[in-house]
């Protein structure tokens, strides 16, 4: 289930070498060779395979820290084993809640293992696909920007989205909009910070990359609306060579996701699924309609964003913070 990595292999080899050097206890008779057992805790053994599994999950460990990582991982396994033994002594492994949790974990591991086997067949993207993605997303690469943003996340019913957008158009800036939201007792949260292009949703970035400092973008969210005031930007492009590994991994992950979804759909199609009891009305579930992409809409129109005077920037942030505080 877990793929081997060069670091994991190095950890395993280092650990094996250490254990081989330890030799075996002449009094153990038919006990397992030392190369298979890392440590004995009371009468229970912790194997090298168990330790290797923990190390493989640790991710990238610098070569000079391999021995330290091995020792720390082994000590954690010893602590865990001691608690497991106490749990068994107290019959906790027979507790209904514990048994239910163990079964849930078993099902999760099995399902994940199958999913990883399915997505493991995903083909890596071609050079043409990588190049096309680079060209199709200049906001992420050739025209990449670092954005200084002030966010206003508004909780409203979907039917009030147009009302908020029109109010922003009439107000002309976030300061007046924040005051109006406070008057209307409409909850909202405010945040400000710096975000590179890659930390923004792809669909949102396409609209945001067209805005200049002092302009506002508004987009739909599952809970209402998100307003972004562009306080400042700076250009930091990424060339094709540096972007290549990131694009390749993104496209590969996208393919894996599609494979997983397709396999679930196939399995549902060939399975017999009966909803029982209170769940019977949902015997033929209807797939939810996909949410509309959160494409920013510049205010008052896509071609004419609302410009906020630079002098108002501090006042905007202050008004937003005060408005949010007033709703607490």
UniProtKB/TrEMBL annotation:
InterPro entries: OMP_Chaperone_SurA, PPIase_EpsD, PPIase_PpiC, Trigger_fact/SurA_dom_sf. It comes from Parazoarcus communis SWub3 = DSM 12120. NCBIfam families: cis_trans_EpsD. Keywords: Isomerase, Signal. Residues 1-19 form the signal peptide. Residues 125-235 form the PpiC domain. This is Peptidyl-prolyl cis-trans isomerase, EpsD family. The keyword Isomerase applies. PANTHER family: CHAPERONE SURA. It holds the Pfam family Rotamase_2. SUPFAM superfamilies: Triger factor/SurA peptide-binding domain-like (SSF109998). One of its GO terms (molecular function) is peptidyl-prolyl cis-trans isomerase activity. PROSITE patterns: PROKAR_LIPOPROTEIN.
């Amino acid at each position: 289930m877990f793929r081997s990595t060069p670091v994991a292999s190095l950890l395993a080899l280092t650990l094996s070498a250490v254990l081989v050097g330890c030799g075996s206890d002449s009094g153990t008779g038919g006990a397992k060779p030392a190369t298979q057992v890392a440590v004995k805790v009371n009468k229970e053994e912790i194997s090298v395979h168990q330790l290797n599994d923990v190390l493989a999950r640790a991710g990238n460990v610098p070569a000079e820290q391999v021995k330290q990582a091995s020792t720390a991982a082994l000590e954690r396994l010893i602590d865990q084993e001691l608690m497991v033994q106490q749990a068994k002594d107290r019959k906790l492994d027979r507790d209904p809640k514990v048994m239910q949790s163990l079964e849930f974990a078993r099902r999760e591991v099995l399902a994940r293992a199958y999913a990883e086997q399915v997505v493991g067949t995903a083909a890596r993207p071609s050079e043409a696909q990588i190049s096309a993605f680079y060209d199709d997303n200049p906001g992420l690469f050739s025209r990449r920007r670092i954005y200084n943003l002030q966010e206003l996340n508004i909780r409203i019913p979907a039917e009030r989205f147009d009302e908020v957008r029109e109010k922003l158009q009439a107000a002309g800036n976030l300061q007046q909009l924040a005051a109006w939201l406070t008057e209307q007792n409409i909850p909202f949260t405010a945040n400000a910070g710096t975000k590179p292009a890659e930390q923004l949703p792809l669909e949102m970035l396409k609209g945001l990359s067209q805005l200049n400092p002092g302009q506002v973008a508004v987009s739909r969210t599952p809970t209402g609306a998100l307003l972004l005031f562009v306080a400042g930007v700076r250009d930091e492009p990424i060339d094709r060579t540096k972007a290549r590994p990131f694009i390749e991994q993104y496209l590969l992950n996208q393919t894996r996701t599609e494979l997983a979804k397709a396999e679930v759909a196939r399995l549902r199609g060939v399975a017999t699924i009966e909803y029982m009891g209170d769940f019977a009305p949902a015997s033929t579930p209807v797939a939810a309609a996909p949410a509309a992409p959160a494409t920013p809409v510049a205010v008052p129109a896509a071609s004419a964003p609302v410009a906020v005077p630079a002098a108002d920037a501090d006042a905007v942030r202050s008004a937003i913070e005060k408005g949010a505080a007033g709703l607490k």
